[in-house]
Amino acid sequence: MQEQQIQEGLEQKKPKLTRDEKKVLKYQKAKLRAKIMRKKIAKKVKQKVNIMNQEAKEKYSEIKHLAKNNLQLGYESGIPIYIDLEYDILMTDREIRSLALQIAHIQGINKEIKFPIQLHLTNVKGIQKNELEKQGLQKWPVHHYELGLQDLIQESLEKGIQKEFIYLSPDADTYLESVDPEQCIYIVGGFVDRQVQKFMSLNKANTLQICSKKLPIESFIKGAKRPLNIDRVVAILSLFYQHKDWKVAYEQSDNFNISLAERITREHQKQE
């Protein structure tokens, strides 16, 4: 009797999923988790806004109102920055997820900065595309391509675009002295380098035979000199274009690690 019940139970079990079906299910679950996380964050922000005083609420509403215009302005005519996503084979799945989160954070930064970024994502395919889509890629006002950086540079030359491509690398010999969106296109290596592998972006620039430069911010970095996240690099470029001061740009770029609602609340608490 007991053996018969076990047999019946086995027969009632769901059929085994194929490998592709398991991948689809895993992707759907991860996308749902990301959506739930975004809702939780939005709820916390709403709670923070609800306890603001009237002046702080008005400032918050003003900035949020400008956000959509800022994103569209960046998409059409912002500071051109390419994120080179051809390092995926050198990263773990966890590092690729972290990279997607950093790129998602750039969308938030772009809503607030005075000079928004025209963001270009190269090599958007495979697992990187999946992770970016979980964060909302389809809704972002960004330019993204399946083509790699070399093909995109070649396309630009064929179209007669005369701007200079500058690959930002912490291992470059020369410093970036200015940010000029009319004359230059800036490239940031899209990789999360937890082990700090040197010369990766410099070697890529040399392979592509394009200029490489580093940000002159070494003296401002306290503690261990780890590579900056790509979202912070993007913020620094925009802030330097605004203030023409690398120290100010570096210090202000750290503010974006805190939500807009939290920053406005702290500012008004200081004033009081």
UniProtKB/TrEMBL annotation:
Keyword presence, Transferase: yes
Nucleus keyword on record: no
E.C. code: 2.1.1.221
Reactions performed catalytically: guanosine(9) in tRNA + S-adenosyl-L-methionine = N(1)-methylguanosine(9) in tRNA + S-adenosyl-L-homocysteine + H(+)
Keywords for the protein's UniProt record, in alphabetical order: Methyltransferase, S-adenosyl-L-methionine, Transferase
Gene3D superfamilies: 3.40.1280.30
GO biological process entries: tRNA N1-guanine methylation
One GO CC term on file: nucleus
Domain SAM-dependent MTase TRM10-type: 67-267
CDD domains assigned to the protein according to its UniProt record, in alphabetical order: SPOUT_Trm10-like (cd18089)
Enzyme class: transferase
Single Gene Ontology MF annotation: tRNA (guanosine(9)-N1)-methyltransferase activity
Superkingdom, natural source: Eukaryota
Protein name stated in the entry: tRNA (guanine(9)-N(1))-methyltransferase
UniProt organism field: Paramecium tetraurelia
